[in-house]
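Exercise 7b. Backbone tokens:
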């Protein structure tokens, strides 16, 4: 059963206000997750450090204001909620400087400092005098809108020639996010108690995080960003429709808050998925690090390098002596077409093709199938034709094995350069010796 105390925590005056609290806490949890991911990096650039400062301020703001909206009569909590928001003009300015890799004009820096100090001072002084004074909200909203407008113009007038294509794409996306966030931020400030529009500022923060997490090549075209965001909004619409079908008695005024909640959840899941992809791409990082190592200049060096890559730690290099029972011309014919790396499943399909033109290749595929089954390997690639050398590896043939095959193809190309023109007497023995040396 659900703890009644937890339900009481979300007991706001109206269902719409409860949804507002849920939305802002979903945003807070997502931004905290993003900030933790940024903090795990050992070497952080200036842009990453400034992004961390901005994300920290936003996460703390979203976390505190959820409690402040629930306990609207608590002046201390209301003042504490506004303090992180007063740091946003300065944090946004520092972020834009890191994004453009240029110092902004001095007057923009002084404006950011002045707006931050004014908003902070107003919040501390006026809220200390009266916990319900609305003037700090007016000052904070004006500060945010002025700073976001100035920074938006700065991004639009940037020196495009000084930035790369992906950097310009990221700046364009951030500019669009800024334009969208201006009206979204305004909805978080309630100057009319009868205003039923849901608070949407959290959506702008989530959209900003999602934009930052896109890969550099994805920023090449703004249309790609718009397409991905459109898909997320479409998913949110489907989720909202399903919620309305489940809650048949829900009033119409709950439609907008439910769509805001569905949008926040969809963006939060997308952000967490991208963070998880960054954490689970260790195979790609391992391959890049392996390729960045000093290249092997001999077969023996390449065999030793194979054991430094998890993908090929159990790989074998087979030479002509071990391939004596097989027809070398047939093996070359089977491996000389198509992809550089052939899987066991593909070879079994190719050996069934017994046409006149493919007879030799089919015979080679049949022999390679026997070789892989005998060595308990799953993939094979042609390392060199004369003398004949094969690279054998074992990759689980699951739906995600295509990326591993591409990585193995890159390793194979690396090895082809290393062994070019070097004779090999007994590569199979050399592989076993390297493995024994590494285990000592």
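Sequence design result:
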């Amino acid at each position: 059963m659900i703890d009644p105390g937890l339900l009481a925590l979300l007991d706001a005056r109206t269902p719409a206000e409860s949804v507002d609290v849920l939305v802002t806490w979903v945003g807070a949890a997502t931004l905290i997750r993003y900030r933790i991911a940024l903090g795990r990096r050992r070497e952080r650039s200036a842009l990453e450090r400034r992004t961390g400062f901005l994300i920290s301020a936003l996460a703390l703001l979203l976390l505190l204001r959820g409690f402040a909206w629930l306990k609207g009569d608590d002046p201390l909590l209301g003042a504490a909620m506004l303090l992180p928001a007063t740091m946003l003009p300065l944090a946004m300015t520092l972020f834009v400087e890191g994004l453009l890799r240029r110092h902004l004009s001095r007057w923009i820096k002084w404006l950011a400092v002045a707006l931050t100090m004014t908003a902070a001072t107003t919040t501390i002084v006026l809220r200390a005098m009266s916990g319900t004074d609305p003037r700090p909200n007016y000052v904070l909203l004006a500060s945010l809108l002025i700073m976001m407008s100035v920074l938006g113009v700065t991004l639009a007038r940037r020196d495009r020639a000084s930035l790369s294509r992906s950097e310009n794409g990221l700046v364009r996306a951030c500019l669009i996010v800024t334009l969208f966030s201006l009206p979204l931020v305004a909805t978080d400030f309630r100057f009319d108690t009868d205003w039923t529009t849901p608070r949407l500022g959290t959506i702008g923060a989530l959209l900003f995080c999602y934009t930052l997490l896109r890969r550099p090549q994805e920023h090449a075209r703004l249309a790609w960003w718009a397409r991905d965001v459109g898909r997320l909004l479409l998913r949110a619409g489907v989720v909202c429709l399903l919620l309305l079908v489940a809650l048949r008695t829900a009033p119409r005024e709950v439609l907008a808050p439910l769509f805001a909640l569905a949008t926040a959840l969809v963006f939060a899941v997308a952000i967490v998925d991208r963070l998880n992809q960054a954490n689970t791409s260790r195979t790609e990082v391992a391959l890049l690090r392996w390729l960045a190592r000093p290249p092997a200049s001999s077969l023996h060096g390449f065999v030793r390098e194979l054991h430094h890559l998890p993908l090929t730690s159990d790989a074998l290099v087979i030479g002509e002596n071990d391939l004596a029972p097989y027809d070398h011309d047939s093996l070359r014919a089977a491996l000389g077409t198509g992809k550089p790396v052939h899987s066991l499943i593909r070879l079994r399909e190719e050996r069934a093709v017994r046409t006149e033109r493919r007879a030799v290749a089919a015979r080679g595929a049949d022999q390679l199938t026997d070789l892989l089954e005998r060595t308990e390997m799953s993939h094979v690639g042609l390392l060199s034709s004369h003398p004949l050398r094969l690279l054998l590896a074992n990759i689980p043939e699951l739906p995600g094995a295509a990326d591993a095959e591409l990585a193995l193809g890159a390793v194979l190309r690396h090895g082809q350069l290393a062994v070019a023109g070097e004779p090999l007497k007994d590569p199979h023995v050399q592989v076993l010796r390297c493995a024994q040396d590494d285990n000592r």
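Instructor comment: Confidence is low (pLDDT under 50) at residues 424-440. Residues 53 and 91 are 6 Å apart (CA to CA).
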